[in-house]
């Protein structure tokens, strides 16, 4: 397991979300992801909504929900936010439930409220069991010149049945359809992380951060599309050892097709994160992280309200800190029911 909660945005719940449901406690994201994090909650459902919003049929209020159950195989169970990896493989049952309310007072003004809970329960390493509860709210208005929005996310994480992390993220965004096939979105966020039940003598990891993210989507004629995201984050922790400046890039390509007259969505994605931590003269240790994640996923709609999800990912997390220097492979198969 990796408890990273991908940074969320109102456009994407998670660039690389898919079947792995990698929870990035640097959200983004995620929160709840992806970004920005992997989100979901298909990984690109909100992207399509943003780019084609003005063509959608106006509804004053609507409800939607989903439930997911799957099995995950993890080659190296880990908690990235604590710089810990077990070096041990394990299997886990993954479950998730989400309820969303969409309120549209006018065709151009959209408000979304959602609540979700995700559970990861390992067969052997129960100390890595994770429960994540997320609340989110967003509002946006499609002006003639651009679509402006504001969003807020609150996530509470439990590790092995104990409170682990409280994560809050709020921000503003602007989106613009460029021509007929290109959509650009830029967002800025403030992030607050509060760790709970920190062992006595362990360093305090509580922090505040400012983040900026830019997403560009290009839609091809065949309904497939490509996404590239550039991101920047400056994190200021109570302990200078955990201060860092991070830059990154997300790439994804999604190709929809039909198999036996049923829709199948294939996605390949890549995520790069480079972090430069505080130097010794600034109270740090000069740590450097270089993270690469590659994922492939398939989402097959066997019914109008039922999807089969299959994903696999490989992560290479290089760091000058031993606990954060490891490789991890995750494969997951599950079923998602939605309405």
TrEMBL record:
<feature type="signal peptide">
    <location>
        <begin position="1"/>
        <end position="39"/>
    </location>
</feature>
<keyword id="KW-0732">Signal</keyword>
<dbReference type="InterPro" id="IPR018759">
    <property type="entry name" value="BBP2_2"/>
</dbReference>
<dbReference type="Pfam" id="PF10082">
    <property type="entry name" value="BBP2_2"/>
</dbReference>
<protein>
    <recommendedName>
        <fullName>Beta-barrel porin 2</fullName>
    </recommendedName>
</protein>
